[in-house]
Design brief:
Length: 172
Amino acid sequence: MKPIPLEPLDTTELQQKYDDWIVFVERSHHGSNPRINPGDAFTPLSKPLSQSRVALVTTAGAHLVDQTPFHVETVAGDPTHRILPDDLDPSDLRFTHTHYDTAPANQDPNCVFPIDRLHELVERGRLGAASPVHVGMMGFNPDPSPIQDDLAPRVAGILADAEVDVAIMVPG
């Protein structure tokens, strides 16, 4: 299959959207503390996707029915994570979040945690393998300090231990 060429990004427009979003967050969320990445967030693949191990990382508040739900009774958010095994039954997933309507996710987990689509891509040879573990988080965290200082390095370690080549970030 021939790759689809991408249009060049209009960084001026993207910057304006980001700036507008920051103003909205600062105006509407208690304790917001936005961060700017000190460098590029893009890392090119070192091998083809068809040879890569892929993990899902979602901020949709995904957890298993027998795991502790995310804490949503606070304006500070919940900077924790849940390990989701690759062999999970999607009907055992729950979504705890207050900043989006979780009803569609609870009805069809694949809309925010596309585990079935991931497995289909592995079966078709488009991806090398699914990671043995995936990660669920709750995306509402107005102060990114605990994410930057603790959660992100911990999740990166979990994915490195699982020998993940690619993490697909899926918002809620």
